[in-house]
Amino acid sequence: MSIAVTVRPLDVGDDIELAAAHAVESAATSDVRPGWVPMGEAARLAAWRADTGWTCHLVGAFDGTDLVGIASAQTAHDTPDTCWVDVAVHPRSLRQGVGGRLARAAEQSAPATVSRFVASAYRPTRATMDELVGGFAHRLGYALATTETVVELDLARARLPVDTDGHPTAYAISTHVDGVPEHLRAQVGVLKGLVDAEAPHGELGWQPTPVSAEEYAAEIALAQEQGRTTIESVALAPDGSVVAWTGLAVGPDPARPAQIEGTLVLSDHRGHRLGRAVKLASLHATREHGRAARVRTSSDDENRWMRAVNAELGFVPVELEVIVQRDRESSTPRTPIVRDTP
């Protein structure tokens, strides 16, 4: 069954319209992610409006004057061939054709440079994930690209090692709040741009996307506008170069877990447990910061090394993430991928 809805672009400059979009997104996400804590309204609106190297188009589905669903199309300036699509439909309007119309409208709003669409979703169980991929995503022409497992650490109760023993003392570990020093930002930006490219990523084919010093500053400024604290730890080689990095963000709501945004060690410096060292340093700093009781992160299900590090530090699985994709020129899905996830 479907309902007659009007789909049109949303005005990102309209506070009332975006507040309604935030409410729909929060209701939709809470319906499929038990225990999920939404980002505050002001912080979400700031993210939609931010100028951090991404272009965001929002569309909404209206049943009369009521907003019942939203979708976004986001494209980064350094990957103009890829558009991230996200769809959220209010629970009361599910299974009525709204999500499909929103997805297509979001795709149509993408720039002409886009050759593929990518989307991600979170679900609590493998069964609900398979239902999403084999049903809604497949009907829209999307096929599985890769899967990740989301893990969470009870930071308030975790027995973290007291130091970063296990890495050579030639490396210096340091932690920075609300931005690394300016002379390190270009190097950190290179590592941030390698996180997705060098970790397992299924069929996504990610390439390095360095973050410039200017983009890095814009990301820090956005986090501060949202009331988030950024905590980053780095490892420096004897020559002073940055060879390992991790970063996480702590939000203003203690009920919302802090989110690890990435961890990477340059290939020539792997094998010294530097990833564990910088992650552990950032977790100690987050605990000292005092606002986060829990920390979340995710790793591709083929990334056995990072999964082992997280397990050693006390992270436990809480939900699943799937990433799907389709080529722009066809609604026929790519060949489905079957994964044997350990």
Lay out the secondary structure.
Layout: E1 6-9, H1 15-32, H2 41-49, E2 54-63, E3 66-76, E4 82-89, H3 98-108, E5 116-123, H4 126-139, E6 143-154, E7 172-177, H5 182-198, H6 213-225, E8 229-236, E9 242-250, E10 258-265, H7 274-289, E11 294-300, H8 304-313, E12 316-327
Parallel strand pairs: 4-5, 10-11
Antiparallel strand pairs: 1-2, 2-3, 3-4, 5-12, 6-11, 6-12, 7-8, 8-9, 9-10
Helix pairs in contact: 1-2
Describe the structure.
With 342 residues, this protein is α+β, with helices and mostly antiparallel strands. The protein folds into 2 domains: 6-151 and 321-327, Gcn5-related N-acetyltransferase (GNAT) (Aminopeptidase), CATH 3.40.630; 153-318, Gcn5-related N-acetyltransferase (GNAT) (Aminopeptidase). It contains 8 helices and 12 strands. It has helices at residues 15-32, 41-49, 98-108, 126-139, 182-198, 213-225, 274-289, 304-313; strands spanning 6-9, 54-63, 66-76, 82-89, 116-123, 143-154, 172-177, 229-236, 242-250, 258-265, 294-300, 316-327. It has a 12-stranded mixed β-sheet, with helices on both faces. Helix 1 (15-32) packs across helix 2. The protein starts with 5 loop residues before the first strand and ends in a 15-residue tail after the last strand.
